[in-house]
DNA sequence: ACGTCTACCGTTTTT
DNA sequence: CGGTAGACGT
């Protein structure tokens, strides 16, 4: 076969990575260096020249988006279907494994997937049954604890509490929660991974089967793998397996969620002939932007080391804008975007990035005012919306009566006269009999154990679900859904709500039926259409609803910007305590993760980057005088320019960075100083000269103060 | 069973 | 300051 198209257009390092014949290959791929390209081309190379069967290849990603993209690109490069390859997310592949071997994994064939929201509900219920006060023991915390344990491969029996009440209590919750999941046939996200790991660990036959099958394992975004994912990969990749991992330690921004960058070093250690290839040529950004990114990330200690470069021109300097406050910050961005659009550029080519979602509000206001269309990423995904989940809960219950989570959700939705105390009776009965809620409900109806009205309502509910299944299940998916929406009166209930929300809800319900119509069962071989659809709904929660067709400005957090690129990028709120965030400033490793986030943000920009900060910001109703983010100060002065024209209130932040431009009084704006009485603060402003010289300092202890330099004993620190 | 009030809380979120 | 979850009152 002619391999030209596979190697064409690749640079030296990329080509080396694609054709490497090492058993273990580590590709350290900088931002915009073509890592997906390498992965896709390597798969094609293995098939076309090494005669590896597609059947023997597994490629793992973190997001559905990435796995779809990989699959499509492999198919178009090879010119044939990639369906015999296992390409998917960690969760998707784990799910596939568990479905194929449900019995071995000790799961019912009908098991359903809990998303985080469902999981929290189950945990709440379990904790209530344990009589744990939810002020003292927040369910969120228990959820976090359970998932953390699972991410580390731990079951309740593996947890040492050493008398620690926090750990021992949460371990009990974990245990009870597992029991609840087992009776309901429910599996949460972390459980998918852990169960899939245990399945292979404890079943030699299966393990060997898959180890023999997969001759090549490729993993994307390896810096984001957690403990259990790493362990799972190790299990599958036996000695004969080639393993390629691609990642960037500088873009690891999910440590707070269990991702372990150390896994990269660990890989290097544990896979003996591992070869490391660095992709450092960047095809995205200007020289200036890359230099800034390199300079910022160079301040991190824990790095494998990498320096991005480009053939591209230097481009424009990075613009800094010191806004008076967050409104003015938003106003400035809106004005710049309007200019940009007027020059014939698309709105969709520019992005506004921020550290936390709360910042989006003000920005939205000003875009709205200027009538600039925008789209905010984040928020509820399609399959996470209440009306959609209600419908799905009915379907889940129809197909799996054991599903207690679904039962709880819809037993009184829409309201049918089953109040808190009636439902509590059902729960109690289930507890006593060690049965599911569904079984308990039937028993209660048979015994007429509730008031006549409530008994009738409960019986009506049971009939509704039973009948729904009997009548609908032979029909096509979308009809089943349509009929469910109608027969349960969900549509009616939401139609009664008022306002724009109700309209959106009705649209979403209609959309759900059409999503089912377009649903491709092929992606889930061997599953019944409904089971496949329900799994799909949990595993791929879908896009955040917005008109993607319209040309609009993209607004999102820095986290969700990873992997994307835009010609024009604004990063708002470049302020200490906001970015780096207050909660991540104390510990060195957290601060380094913030810095990586800054690195991710900067490297999103292709042509032009604006960094903004406000001198005054209202935060939770309180006025604050933040200091300029250290990440701005870490960018060399020659790469940036201050765009504020009127600098009566403030001087350029980097005025003092070269000796000649030292602030008149020996202090620079943004500099930290110490005062004998007020402690540490940051210089906000200064005015006057000689004996009249005054500086405005924002002290951590007492806030902003003007001080006469001649009297105040300020020390630089 | 529904609507109103209040107390609380307030990074980031691939699945 | 603003959103929301749960309590409380009708």
From TrEMBL:
SUPFAM superfamilies: P-loop containing nucleoside triphosphate hydrolases (SSF52540). GO terms for molecular function: 3'-5' DNA helicase activity; ATP binding; ATP hydrolysis activity; DNA binding. Residues 287-563 form the UvrD-like helicase C-terminal domain. Pfam families: PcrA_UvrD_tudor, UvrD-helicase, UvrD_C. One of its GO terms (biological process) is recombinational repair. Its EC number is 5.6.2.4. This is DNA 3'-5' helicase. It comes from Aliikangiella coralliicola.
